[in-house]
Amino acid sequence: MNTDADNFAQLLKNNGVSVTTARRAIFHTLRDADEPLKNGEIARRTPTVDRASVYRTLELFARLGITETVMRGWTPYTELAEPFTPHHHHIICENCGKVVEIENDTLEDVLNLVASRYDFALQKHVVELSGLCADCRAKTTRQAA
Amino acid sequence: MNTDADNFAQLLKNNGVSVTTARRAIFHTLRDADEPLKNGEIARRTPTVDRASVYRTLELFARLGITETVMRGWTPYTELAEPFTPHHHHIICENCGKVVEIENDTLEDVLNLVASRYDFALQKHVVELSGLCADCRAKTTRQAA
DNA sequence: ATTCGTGCAAACCATTTGCAAGAGA
DNA sequence: TCTCTTGCAAATGGTTTGCACGAAT
To answer: What pTM value is reported for the model?
Structure first.
């Protein structure tokens, strides 16, 4: 009952492209890593697939909306999107790099509201937060004292 | 009374780096373009500065928080950040590419609330929305009919 | 005068592309 | 079988780096 894999295959078919081993492999890599990965890292974790194909596939996935790409500092990170991952955002600790997933309905509501105020029908959105986690705040305070 | 330029110079000094012609030029380019630019475009619009220096400067700016970088599709775009630009976000039309700046206090409040709920002290955030603008919705509807 | 930053040119490396062979429908 | 994809390898082009000169403090 691997529903995700099925949905994935179906999605590809619906878009008239084939369900290949390479594509499944990359989908699998993304599925296993439960955090956004750099392109290079995706390639490294999918050694059975040629680097060139990884890029071609990633571009396809992005076009079909299978993946989402966000910027962290200077590097783009990719992860599975909506249909395959519960909708969420991230908050990153600027000191220790800890990443926590965020899920919040109010936030989603406000985003929709804001979009409609500008007369847009919201389809996608990227929200990435960063700050200091509790641990690092504690440490910093102690040091400062 | 070019306050921005002064703040910029001050910020560099405070961080112990020099205020150079190249840095001013790039700052100026960013300031003039009132929208996010690709790295290459920044270089193109600042022909007096060597490409290598543009990258070095951009990295410096990002590190000092002078600029902010966001992802659009596959490309990173950079623009001036907080101190030099009124805080805002963008919403992009997926059909015609129109970009509108967003400013909304409720949104900011909710973000802070969400962060604190996860025990983070929010310092920065990226919010990028995309959807269909009113014009394109109208066109699409007409075509469909 | 010293230190920091820049330009130039070469080096790197991630990403892209052409093409023939192989996998998918 | 016929078309879509992949792998391989070469080409590309954005980004980085070393070094000597020139600018900033």
So the answer is: 0.83
